[in-house]
Every structure is written in C-alpha cells, then in structure tokens.
Amino acid sequence: MKILTPMRALGSLSVLGAVLLVALILGLTAGPSGLGVGEILSVLGDRDATGPAADIVLRVRLPRVLLGALVGACLAVSGVLFQAMLRNPLADPYVLGVSGGAALGGILVLSLGSAIGLGYEAVPPAAFAGCLITTAVLYAIAGANARVSTTSLLLTGVVFNAFASAAIVFLASMAGLTEGASIFLWLIGSLSSIRTEVTGWVAMFLVLGLGSTFPLARSLNLSALGGESAEQLGVDIDRQRRVVLIASSLMVGAAVSVAGMIGFVGLIIPHLLRLILGPDHRLLIPASAFGGAAFLVVCDAIARTILDGRELPVGAITALAGGPLFLWLLRRYHQRVFS
Amino acid sequence: MNGSARRLLGIALMAACWTGVSAGSDPPAPSAPVAQGLRVVSMNPSLTRMLIALDAQQVLVGVDEYSADHESAVAALPRVGGLFNPSLEAVVALEPDLVVVVPSVQQRDFRARLRELGVEVMELASITFDQLLTSMQTLGDRIGRSQAARERVAAIRSTWVDVAREASLQPRRSAVLIVQRDPLYVVGGESYLNAMLDAAGLDNVAAEYQEAYPRVSLEWLIAAGPQVIIDSSADPVNAVEHWSRWVSIPAVAEGRVVAVPQGLVTLPGPYLDRSLLTMVAAIRSADRASGTGGGAKLQ
Predict the structure, then answer these.
(1) Which domain holds residue A217?
(2) Which CATH number does the domain housing residue A255 bear?
(3) Which of A119, A180, A310 sits opposite B236 (nearest CB)?
(4) I need a labelling partner for A206 at 20 to 30 A (CA). Which of A132, A148, A253, B85 fits?
(5) Hey, how many other C-beta atoms are within 10 angstroms of the C-beta on A71?
C-alpha cells in the first residue's frame, strides 16, 4: 500500500486539478455552433457581452459545464463513500435506493405535472423531495435497532429501488407519449435541461457533503478492516455510517434531481482512482471530486458535439465509456489479486 | 444513445404531435356507401381522425386508447391499447376485417401476430406530407370512401398551392417549429410539418436533419438564429416568456415567437389545410405584434 504523504497528496490533487481544468476548457470550447477560441475568450472577458456568441458561451455552455462538474463530483464522492461504508466494491451512488426515490419524485411530476399545471421546472424540487423522503425512510428502517446495519441498508435499498422501478414503469405506462419521451431521457440522465439557478444549490450540497465526510476519511480507512475491528480501534461506526448516509444521500439527491440518473460515474471513478492512487480516503475523497467532475464534463462535451447539433443524453456516453472501462478494471483487479 | 433508442424517441415525438384538439369535425357528405359490414380497428389517432373525417366512423369497432380519450365520436368504442402496449387479444376479440396501423417499430411484432392470425393489417405511414395524403386516399379506397378521400386530398393540395403562392410574394424567413422544449425537440426535414413551413414561406432551420423530429441542443438553436419561432409544446409556461431570455435569437428580438397549442398545427390528420391556415394566421398575428415587441399566442 502506498503511504500518503502531504507532498504526494498535493501532487496528486494538482495533477487532477489540471485534468479538471483541461476538461473545463474542453467543455467551454466544444459545441455545435463552431465558435472559435478567440471569440470564446473575448466573450469570457466581457461580462456585458451580448449576441449569439455571448448567449452560447455565458448562458448555455458555462452553466452547463459548471453543473456537469458539480454533478460529476457529487456522484463520484458519493460512490467512494458508499463503497467504503458498505465495504462493497459494487456499491454506487444509486445502490441504497435514494436515487430511486429521487427518480420517482421527478417522474411523478414529469408524468402527471402537466395535468396540474406543473412544468419541467418543478421536476428538480420534486426529485429532491423524493430523495429526502427515501433517506428518512432508509434511516428509520435500517437504524430501527439503534445501530445502522450495512446489511439492512443494502437490503432496504435493493427493495426500495425495485419498488421505485415498478412505480416508474407504472407511471411511464400511464403517461402520454410526450411525457414518455421525457421520462425515458430523464432515466438515462442528461444535462441538457439544466437551469442556471440550480448550480449554486448543487454546489452547496457538494461542499456540505465534502465538509462533513472528509474528516471521517481516516475512520473510513479503518472501516476497511471490518466494523468490529474498526470499533476496537476507536472508530464510532454508527456515527460514521449516519454521517455518510445522510451526506451522500443529499449529494446524490442534488445530482439526480437536476440531471437524472447518470450512471457509472459513481462506480468507475472511485475504482479508477483507487487503482491509481491507492485506497486512502484522505486522498480518494477529494480526488474523486476532481475526477468525477472532469469525467462528466468530458462526457457531456462528447454528448453535445458527436451528433452535430443534436443532443445525446450524457448518461448514454458515461455508460458507453464506463461499461468497457469497468470490465477492464475488473480484469486488471483479478490479474493483480491472482498473480 | 443507441439507434433503436433514437428511433423510439423519434417515433414518440412524432406521436406527440398527434395530441391536442381536433382541427374540425364536419365530415363531408357521404359520396358512396361505406363498405358493407366492414369491421375496422384503428390503432392510431391520426388514422382514427381520417376515418371520422371520411364519415366512416361506423366501420370502427375498436380504437387505441389515445383516440378513445380525445375523439368524442369514438369514445364509447372498445379500447385496444396504445402504441407501446397494444392488446392482441382485445383486437382479435373484436373480430375485425381490417386493422389500420402506422408502421411503427413498437408494433412490429403485433402486426406480424395479427397477420399470422389471418387478420388484414393495413400499414399507413404518416410522417411526410405525401405519405399522409397517400395514406388518406388508400384508406378511403379500402373502406369505400374513395370520393370523399379524393375531395379531402384535393382540398389540402389546393390550400397548399394558395398559401404557397401568397407566401411567394413575401421574402422568405427562417423558422423553427418547437415540438417539445425540455428536452428540446423540433420539426426536422422529413416531417410533413417541414412541408407546411415551406408552403408558408418559411425555411426550416432544422431541415438539415433528415429525421422527422430531431432532438437538438439549445446552443444549436441560438446559433441557427431563426427569424420565427413557432412553439407548439405542451409546456404550461408561456412561450413568449420562456424564449424571452434568448434575445440574441432574431425571432425573440423581433417579437416573432408564436405560441400554438399542442396539436392545433402539429396534427398529422385529415385537416392539414386548416392546420396550415392556422399557422399562417398565427405568424401574421406575430408580425402585427412584432411592432410592439411582443409575440403571439393562439388559443
């Protein structure tokens, strides 16, 4: 195991920060309208700029790139935290059913909203409400015996995801064709419907999530030894699980409520970075924030440009890139373990 | 997104255009008796409306869910499912002589099973302008309403020519027809609505896309800079208000954002002539309002 030194942490995070910067520049310069770099720089340097180039760069691309980075960071950090808390390498941000609750809330509005005068702008609040309700239910059920059991959490999550999936299928079957198309896209995950107003909101949950869980990084490292061993070493496992559950759920809820169910970011990025940087959560948590942000921004740039003006849901790109990458990671892991 | 998913979305959006109000309900006087004893099931609202327009609703013994919900003339008929969930059993139980469908991917197996069971299935495409007119004539011929269908087709073609002639006296403008705002779907080159825009003297900025209803990015729309936006989405937020923040789009800057209730124009049915006239009236209304910086909303 690689020893984490301040210099190594700083170096790793600097490299990832540079990767994120490159991704952000790529996100700002990529698009179907063919704006030149000079035009983009001129618009970025003039806050009062008007015209199509200003609209495209300042009001379409910039908010989208920023939100993509925030959503990617939320998903990747949640993935790391869930994998550590559950001690399960297959855990992802959606494993505990929080995403199912958020999706159910959002899709309720997508399918029935127009009948009661609610437009697309009501989807994120409804999805986030779904996330909060699910988190509360999870917490109440899994923590019923005063101890937060990971097995109970996992089982509750699996059952709740199945329930939410069935409810979503039911709603989609009842929905009109227009609503059906929106539901389909929302389930894949997309950043095309973002509103600039939600960027600060997602940023707030990311900061809260990072702020509340980063201090637990050392105890998460010890948790890898098993709950009982970690407790003997002084880790308050119950408190750790409660904080991780609530912080991660809020980050996942914020991400899903604005971008739908973007897959693979929260699964792939933690594994990739764990392979490269080692399993120390003091580095892995911030590194995942940078890595998830960069990955989603690049995937979204591809989704926006690959079809020349037409949009692909970014969830399709993350899945297309993530699937093979995950298989490669698994293969490499097995080679390392068994060699 | 893979090809089949995109096709699914395209068809879903195409079908989304079939929603909304009827463009009229005064069928022509019967020109010939409808085929005696014919039992027809319609699996598509567009085809149901054609049958009603040809005064042949009496041959219908069952309809899809959407038709039953939106067409009062067939509301009492048995329902046989929708585009995604057609009920083979419900259709067969009605012992139809003919089932009329659109050639959608979703109902491919359903059509095959019906044919295996010996039921006549008539596939009538309704994406392009010519397909729609041909479908109406083919349907009219099959049910014994050839003359009524000919008259309806002639009326549509005549209106098309009149409107195009009048539009040719004015400079052409670029336009976009919004089917859905979020996610953003517009009318592409293959749709009959592209022909409608063309007849009205408008150059569809999305005509470069061959599919009927492409999903596009907002960035593409801003860069395309249409001079007229016709918004036929179902979003409850006012179209003029929604688009007002994109002042760099000429249509917004010049107040030519036209809100049309979903289905009033985007209705691939038997009254394309009325749809075209409605759209032209809406654009004129926007032209008049553009002097005051506002858009137009058609009720």
Answers:
(1) 21-28+35-338
(2) 1.10.3470.10
(3) A119
(4) A148
(5) 33
Q: How far apart are CA B281 and CA B104, in angstroms?
A: 33
For residue A90, tell me if it sits in a domain.
yes
Q: Read off the amino acid at residue A41.
A: L
Query: Which residues of chain A does B248 touch, with a Cβ-Cβ cutoff of 8 Å?
Result: 50-52, 54-55
**Model confidence pLDDT, tens digit, residues B157-195:** 999 999 999 999 989 999 999 998 878 899 999 999 999
Q: pLDDT per residue over A255-297, tens digit each?
A: 988 888 898 899 889 988 988 888 899 999 999 999 999 999 9
Q: Within a domain: residue A160?
A: yes
The answer to whether B12 contacts chain A (CB < 8 Å) is: yes
Q: What domains does chain B contain, in order, with CATH numbers? A: 29-153 (3.40.50.1980), 170-297 (3.40.50.1980)
CA B38, B44, B49 angle in degrees (round to 5)?
A: 70
User: CA–CA separation, B279 vs B265, rounded Å?
Assistant: 6
CA B37 to chain centre: 30
Cβ atoms of A271 and A325 closer than 8 Å: no
**Does A7 fall in a domain?**
no
Nearest residue, CB atoms, B219 vs list A33, A114, A119: A33
With CB atoms and an 8 Å threshold, state whether A316 touches B182: no
Distance CA B123, CA B85 (A): 17
DSSP state of A3: P
CB contact (8 A) between residue B217 and residue A32? yes
Contact B248 A33 (CB under 8 A): no
Q: Any CB–CB contact under 8 A between B215 and chain A?
A: yes
User: Which residues from chain B sit within 8 angstroms of residue A185, using beta carbons?
Assistant: 9, 183
How does pLDDT run across A246-259, given as a tens digit for each residue?
Answer: 899 899 989 988 88
Asked if this assembly's ipTM is beyond 0.85, the reply is: no
Q: How many domains does chain A have?
A: 1
pLDDT at residue B14 greater than cutoff 70 = no
Residue A190 lies in a domain: yes
Element (H, E) at B65: helix B65-70
